[in-house]
Write a structure and sequence with these properties.
Distance between the termini: 27 Å
Largest sheet: none
Helix content: over 70%
Order of helices and strands: HHHHHHH
Number of helices: 7
Number of strands: 0
Low-confidence stretches: none
Structural class: mainly alpha
Strand content: under 5%
Radius of gyration: 17 Å
Shape: globular
Amino acid sequence: MEKKNLYKWELLFWLWLAYFFNQADRQVFNIVLPLIKGDLGLTDTQLGIIASTFTLCVGLCTPLAGFIGDLFSKKKVIITSLFVWSIATFFTGFSYSLVQLIFLRSVAVGGGEAFYAPSSNAIICENHTKTRARAMSIHQTSLYVGIILSGVLGGLIAENYGWRSCFYLFGGIGIILA
């Protein structure tokens, strides 16, 4: 296999891992939500504010992320995005208030994750011309695997070690990956 052909598949492997953690970090919050609610004494309205602010941050940051991805190195944008959302995920485990959860989960994780997709999709398309559909579909599988495994692993970890441990583990692995 020629070097350029090997590179594009290796790149896809690393992007798959990053997108896996993008989705796992996003979904594990939903898995441990009942434990967070009980531990911190949050109301359903407060949980709704956290979720709505997350969606708002992703929605507002994604167009900016596309602009930034066109101006700067897509690889650096992806790595920075992974690092930011992983750090925020890790520190979510240290949250003790609604304000901390809004800042870490909604603003930092949501904002950080928003910068991943525009640059990763562009870099896949740049490197996979004749294999673009296959590469994009392989990359997309990490979304589903991330959602499924974060549910299973997040539930097991939270049940045995507490909800905070989920964020330490998922965030810590993402930091190392970045």
